[in-house]
Amino acid sequence: MADRPVVVFTWARRPARGTAAKLRRVAHHVLERLGVESGEVGVLVSSDEAIHALNRSFRGVDRPTDVLAFPAGGSQPDGPPYLGDIAISLDTARRQAAAAGVDEVQELATLLVHGLLHLYGLDHERDGGEMMALEMSLRRELGL
Q: Is 1 within the bounds of a domain?
């Protein structure tokens, strides 16, 4: 049997206690539904300032955003395939959670689902709604 995907978090900003375990469950559910049997994903939870810098450097967009995804799709010298990195702004997630009337963990989970779908190769700006439909289905399954 294949190994379960590995999700590695880097916490430049600290969310509520217990967030990592909840987000890891979300990631494993999404990756399992996508048929990803093994691999590694890096998730950075950071500030608006850090995400702004990444957005400017990699997308040429001079503003912060909620989530960025950087697909890798390559092998590592040792270990499972590296699927890529996701960067989430905790500042933006908190604002969006407050505006939507949900807790920050739910908003972080929603952004993680979105980022994972991008790592999988989906693109809501070009796919005619396929990514959005799958994202909404996954969010229902996860109670988000």
A: no
Q: How confident is the model at residue 1 (pLDDT cuts 50, 70, 90)?
A: very low
| Tokens describing residue 105 | 């963990």
Task: Tell me the CA distances in angstroms from 30 to 37, 60, 120, 132, one per residue in order.
Answer: 11, 29, 10, 14
Look over the chain and give the mean of its residue pLDDT values, rounded to a whole number: 91
Give the C-alpha separation, 39 to 79, whole Å: 8
Its pTM stands at 0.91
Q: Report the domain count for the chain.
A: 1
Q: What is the CATH number of the domain that holds 123?
A: 3.40.390.30
Rounded average pLDDT over 103-112: 96
